[in-house]
Amino acid sequence: MAAQGLTGVERRFGDDELIVSKTDATGRITYCNDVFLRLTGYAEQELIGKPHSIIRHPAMPRSVFKLLWDTIATGRECFAYVINRARNGDHYWVFAHITPDLDESGATIGYHSNRRTVERSVLSTIEPLYTALLAEEARHGDRKAGLDAAFASLQSTLAAKGVSYDQFVLGL
Amino acid sequence: MINLSSVSKALLANGLSLALAAIAVASALSAGAVTAAILAGGCGLLGLAGLMWLMRANNSVDKANAALRQAAGGRLRARVPGIRGHGNVGELLRNVNRLLDQTEAFAKEADAAMRAASEGRFYRHILPKGLRGEFARYAASANATLDVMARHAGELGAFTRRMLDDAVTISMTVNEGAIANASIVGGIRTARDEAAGMAAATEQMVSGIQEIAARSDEAVALSAEAQDMTDSGSDVVDAAMAEFSAIEAAVADAAARVGALSEASEAIGDILSSIETIASQTNLLALNATIEAARAGEAGKGFAVVANEVKTLSNQTARATEDIGSRITNLRQEMSGIVATMTRGTQAIAKGRQAMETMGTRMRDIGNRVDTTTAKMADVSRILTQQAGAADQISGGVQNVAHQAENNAGAIERSSAALSGVEKQIASLLSLLVEQDIPNKIVLIAKADHIIWKKRLFDMLVGNARLNPDELANERSCRLGKWYYGPGSMPYRNGPAYRQLEEPHRTVHQCGLEAVRLFNAGQVEGAMRLVEQVEEASKVVLAALDALCAAGDCQPAAAAGRF
Ligand SMILES: Cc1cc2nc3c(=O)[nH]c(=O)nc-3n(C[C@H](O)[C@H](O)[C@H](O)COP(=O)(O)O)c2cc1C
Q: For the domain A19-162, what is the CATH superfamily, name and number?
């Protein structure tokens, strides 16, 4: 995604607010709450049925989304620090928590995400990490190879710290 | 009517008022009251708009209702979509969504935190951010509970950790004990085998001694016989000597007689020469007489006959004496031959006597010697019999020792059996504890595992177990190996203890496997040497594990909990 159109302006929201959205099983938005609409600057009808990547920010490494999807696809919850892009090119950081939505039989029928505010101190860890992952992804000509390399480097960074991804993100 | 909501009633009233307005317009027009008709029409239009708004409101209420119905049924994912307007109805719908957002967030968080707690991840709290009011309060109290649970789990963890520590220590002690037992049993077995061998050897010795004793008894008897024989031999020699003396005397006598005979024959010779002289003189006389007779002629004739007779006689005599002379010469020759023979005979006899005498002395000598030999032999035989008795006692003693050793081995084997019961229990306790989330558990368990591995090798060496090298773990497939080469050891890889562990650990496994192979191929000595190497290496492994443990304790609890 091109970096053009970014304003560099950061949007903030309240610590007592949740940015909520829901998607179908493929990641198309089925619901977003008023905080979501306020921060992104989209109208609800512009978002419903659209892929969630509509608010994707170019500073997000693909390997983080791979980890996200790998995790939720197995029915587990996933945490991630995400930078999102508002309609006008502004951005906002969230601490996203994504879980599967299950029907009565326990089958996954979609996903749910609650996003919370991010402690400033966390970004001093996350931003360099994401920059490094992005660089790793870009270093390889082949998109897939870049993704795999970055993913592997993320895993080994965690292994070197001796922590799981969950422990890492929750411990920040 | 009674079941209708106020919105529905309003809709109904609105509908009715619309109908009334329509009637009013119609009747006003028919009565020509244009103004009234316009007013009634306006009323109706307003009513229509009201009806539309009311329907919208009703629609919103239906949407809210649908969402809330779902939520009331526990399906918290329901939301009201497509909210427009910012009036109280719009806000109503937004509030429905806000309520559901809060409720669902709380429910999902609580679910996730509880689920994590059930897996021991107490650090997964309900995220309080974004939750409001009571939701936030409940979250806080649930989190406090989680903290208490975490503390308890920590205490339980510490307890379990201590239990694991103890179990590992017990396991190691028990197995070291079992190893000691096994090697004692091995030693006893060897001692027993050696004692049995010794007993057999002593028994053989005893029977050898007995054999020698019997032989020397025989020798004693034989020498007694020999004594008898020498005794009677000397008697015979003595008798022979006496005989010899008699023969000697007889020969001497005979010699003397032959001498006398020889002298007599010489005398006869003398007589013969006298006779010879007489015969020749007689012959001469006869010759003369013949001559005289011849001279005397006829008268002499008779005389001549006599003279002739005498001549014949003298000739005959001469011939006879000659004959006798030659005979006597022969005789004398014979006799001197006899004398010579006799002289030789006496010499031979003298020599014989001497020989006999020497023989006699020798015989007596031998007799004496045989006598001493017999005495000595008897001594030997007596001593040997005593020795045989002693050896018999030794053999008995050795057999006793062997028996004792057997008993001891039995006792130790019983204690080993008891120990192996404990071992099994400890092993199952360990495998229970392995399931627990205990920091450093693999390192701790590995200590026990490697002692157990060593013990199995000892069991094999002393013949308590047969091992198949294909079924034995190698340095990568054992519990420690899996951890070592797996992701669990990541936090330790930069420390020196981690690197120090690899080489001796590999040695433990490879030497162990090789020992099993050698043992199975019958090369016990080689197997024993390798097991010694395993011992040495496993000491280093244990030290490295201790060092790792110490390093592990420095790790953050969360990280340590992962391996
Ligand atoms: C419930 C849910 C919420 C998501 N929220 C975001 C989000 O806020 N921002 C974002 O960039 N991607 C979000 N994603 C991930 C997107 O689906 C997508 O994987 C991501 O934007 C990367 O897009 P790309 O694969 O086209 O690069 C969300 C996915 C799910 C299932």
A: PAS domain (3.30.450.20)
